[in-house]
Specification:
By secondary structure, the chain is mainly β. The protein has a single domain, classed as Glycosyl hydrolase domain, family 43 (Tachylectin-2, Chain A, 5 Propeller). Helix content is 3%, strand content 46%. It is built from 1 helix and 28 strands. The chain has one helix at residues 9-19, and strands spanning 33-36, 47-48, 59-69, 80-85, 88-97, 100-106, 116-117, 119-122, 127-135, 142-149, 164-170, 176-184, 204-211, 217-224, 233-240, 252-255, 258-260, 263-268, 274-279, 287-288, 299-311, 316-326, 331-339, 352-356, 363-366, 376-377, 380-385, 388-396. Strands 2, 13, 14, 15, 16, 17 and 20 form a 7-stranded antiparallel beta sheet that branches. Strands 1-3-28-27-25 form a 5-stranded antiparallel beta sheet, with no helix packed on it. Strand 22 (316-326) and strand 23 (331-339) form a beta hairpin. The longest helix is centred in the first third of the chain and has 11 residues, at 9-19. It is globular and about 55 Å long.
């Protein structure tokens, strides 16, 4: 988001939220179990594309823990990667704030160096938030997926932006990045300039990614902020892992029950050269907004900011979600959902509330040395919000 403008009162409030973890009444004062999540029960009114599966579903509970913090300022999902350094496994964590990406490393998430800004050999114009990273073990190359904001691309003077999603690659363990370009955008003219939303006029962003078990597809779970309420919410797309070095124009969006490609659009530049752009369809939300981000009422009811990991204990994919209740992005709660596979978006369970209130960007961090990250965790993991953790999350089959 255009999240750190020092002139923005809303942004200052957001920074304060990131600095002070808010735990709702259902967790406050507990030293052991705070919440039990029973996914068979539907909570709330946010629209869904399908009912929860009939099979038994996992549960989760929170346990209070000593506070720990990432060393970089956080205003997005914070991807983590384990990699070898002179034969020893080291943890790398990328954090983003005000459109600047920083990298920290250490022997564990509690032993991280200070976060330092990364470099770009070819950088996207204006601000990026690096929200997901995958490593290719065979080549040592990392692939990053970022939320990108450009000022006044549309709705000039509104102070709001139209985010999109891009990709990048690094050959030096995240210190330097080469931009691969924008890989997913909202459909043309799907924004609303008169929106009361504090940050966005439309667009897509606030994402996480996972590589499937067969290393065939990268799945992108993202937030969709387009004009039409029926299309607002959490959507999913995928791109072939084999095309990771040239992903532009290759992302398929889950829409109307199938994986739909973008349409090429060629235009002539003033120099007489042909420039190709891609028009992407709007995704069919996994969890559609019940109240719009963009109507003139201040109330909102929408999930956003998914963070997805594979849980080795549950043998399930787990998604953590924010749920917004107004145009200033006030947090109604943190929610959780499950799925047995990635290839059929319709099987995700109904989200249920894990925590009342809370802060933006809930994600796990696996506790297993050498493997545990935001994308891989076991029965017990750390729950982070805005880069801070005061709870373990414990899963039960």
């Amino acid at each position: 988001m255009t999240r750190c403008d020092p002139q923005s009162t809303a942004t200052k409030a957001r920074a304060l939220s990131a600095a002070r973890l808010h735990v709702g009444p259902c967790a406050r004062g507990f030293t052991a179990v705070a919440v039990v999540v029973l996914l068979a029960a539907h909570h709330g009114s946010v629209g869904l594309t399908q009912p929860a599966p009939a099979e038994s579903v996992p549960s989760a509970r929170l346990i209070a823990a000593d506070a720990v913090h990432l060393t970089g300022s956080v205003d997005s999902n914070s991807p983590a990667i384990w990699d070898l350094v002179r034969g020893t496994r080291r943890l790398y964590v990328l954090t983003s704030w005000d459109g600047v990406v920083r990298l920290a490393t250490g022997s564990s998430v509690t032993q991280l160096s200070e976060a330092e800004p990364v470099s770009w050999t070819r950088a996207p114009r204006q601000k990026v938030w690096m929200e997901a990273v995958l490593a290719d073990p065979g080549s040592g190359v990392w692939y990053g997926y970022y939320h990108h904001e450009r000022d006044d691309v549309v709705c000039e003077g509104s102070g709001r932006v139209l985010p999109r999603i891009g990709a990048a690659r690094s050959e030096d363990q995240g210190r330097t990045w080469q931009d691969l370009g924008p890989i997913l955008e909202a459909p043309p003219r799907s924004y609303r300039c008169d929106t009361p939303n504090e940050y966005f006029v439309g667009g897509v962003g606030d994402l996480s990614v996972l590589l499937d078990a067969q290393s065939q597809h990268v799945y992108l779970f993202y937030s969709q902020y387009v004009r039409r309420q029926q299309l607002q919410g959490v959507a999913v797309a995928r791109v072939a892992w084999a095309g990771r070095d040239a992903p532009v124009g290759k992302v398929l969006v889950w829409a109307r029950g199938q994986w739909m490609p973008p349409s090429p659009v060629d235009t002539l530049t003033t120099e007489g050269e042909t420039r190709r752009r891609w028009h992407y369809p709007a995704g069919t939300p996994l969890y559609a907004a019940a109240e719009s981000w963009h109507d003139q009422a201040s109330d909102v009811d929408a999930f956003w900011g998914p963070s997805v990991h594979w849980n080795t204990y549950l043998k399930r994919y787990v998604m953590l979600l924010n749920r917004a209740r107004d145009v200033s992005w006030a947090q109604e709660g943190i929610y959780i959902a499950f799925a047995a596979s990635l290839d059929d978006p319709r099987i995700w369970s109904t989200p249920t509330r894990l925590l009342e209130g809370g802060s933006w960007y809930p994600q796990v961090m696996g506790l297993e040395t050498g493997t545990g990250t935001d994308k891989l965790a076991g029965q017990m993991a750390r729950l982070y919000m805005s880069g801070h953790s005061e709870h373990y999350i414990v899963f039960t089959r």
